Amino acid sequence: MKKIKFIYNPFSGDGVVTKNLDTIISKYQAKGYTIIPFRISTEQNLEETFSDIDSSYHHILGAGGDGTINQIINLMKEKNLDIPLAILPVGTANDFAKYIGMPADIGEACNKILSGEIREIDLGKANDKYFINVFSFGLFTDISQKTPTHQKNTLGKLAYYINGIKELPSLKKLDIKVTSDEFSYEGNALIFFTFNGRTAGNINISYKSEINDGLLDVIIVKGENILSTFLSLFEFLKLEHLEEPKDIIHFKSSDFVVKYLDSSLNSDIDGEVGPKSPVHISCIKNGLKIIY
User: Fold this and answer.
1) Which cofactor does the UniProt annotation name (predicted)?
2) What number of other Cβ atoms are within 10 A of residue 285's Cβ?
3) Are 252 and 233 in contact (CB under 8 A)?
4) Residue 12 to residues 92, 150, 179, 245, 275: CA-CA distances in angstroms?
5) 25-63 per-residue burial string, b: 16 or more CB within 10 A, e: under 16
6) At 246, which helix (H) or strand (E)?
7) Cα separations (Å) of 57 from 50, 119, 178?
8) What is the 3-state secondary structure (H, E, C) of 169-222?
9) Handedness of CA 68, 72, 74, 257 (dihedral sign)
10) Alpha-carbon distance 269 to 134, whole Å?
11) Tens-digit pLDDT profile for residues 228-257
12) Whether the Cβ atoms of residue 87 and residue 97 lie closer than 8 Å to each other
């Protein structure tokens, strides 16, 4: 029987994966796979589960939110594992899983994986950390980190809008410098995004992004003043912010450097803490095998 390494986070999405363990195992066994599980916990290092993965494994099945998937991918790259990854969306946002069309229902998601294809997709890299969906810093990163998990679970993307409006009175513009062959910018930024996927916090921000074009989509919200920022928020809601951008810069690049002056500022990669400035960001074409 073909082996599957099943890595799951029992705390993601109010423990939905633990309620569906029998469904997952039965679906895989019916297709002739042997599940080798690893439960993520504070007592065991996630790195331990990669020690026995070899050519006898067909793929890794990751069950968790965007942060869990990010950790798995970074360890796969660190261990030079070139086997496919499948994603069960059991976290709060599940941005990348939704982009590739993974159903929210666990049984349906298993069916999609088991009947899916192995495809090569692009992967982002920020200094020495990899990301599958988005690298960001600025207002959105602050809002994401300040929004309580229970609020995200109950309100979805509305929670981000509510908390974003709360933060508007204390807007903090950043001095940044972006250098690439395609485009360079030096000036103010309220929010900075680099997308491989399309959504962040379930908000469809980078709707022109593709995961197989060898390019990352850079979006900078300048935030010149309160009025222009409010107008930009309405354009986000209407999905028109990349069509006639008033306060937004959008370009595609495979390799660039971004610097910001605030040394205390945290960046975010797929829900995990990212590197500090300066950050060299690149796109690794066909850098990851995904089943969907």
Assistant:
1) Mg(2+)
2) 14
3) no
4) 7, 11, 37, 36, 24
5) bebbeeeebebbeeebeeeeebeebbeebeeebbbbbbb
6) none
7) 11, 17, 41
8) HHCCCEEEEEEECCCCEEEEECEEEEECCCEECCEECCCCCCCCCCCEEEEEEC
9) negative
10) 6
11) 766 766 776 677 788 876 788 999 999 999
12) yes
Instruction: Quickly tell me which residue has 């409006």 as its tokens.
Output: 165
Joined together, the tokens standing for residue 228 give: 């222009």
Interstrand relation of 33-39 and 2-8 (parallel, antiparallel or unpaired): parallel
User: E strand or H helix at 74, and its extent?
Assistant: helix 66-78
> pLDDT for 145-175, tens place per residue?
455 544 444 444 444 444 554 555 456 789 9
CB 93 within 8 A of CB 69: no
Which amino acid is located at 41 in the chain?
S
Q: What residues contact residue 50 under an 8 Å CB cut-off, 6+ apart?
A: 75, 76, 79, 81
Count the Cβ atoms, other than its own, within 10 Å of residue 283: 21
- Point out which residues pair with 121 in neighbouring strands: 288
What pLDDT score was predicted for residue 165?
47
For every residue of 5-47, DSSP letters joined together read EEEE-TTGGGGTTGGGHHHHHHHHHHTTEEEEEEE--SSS-GG
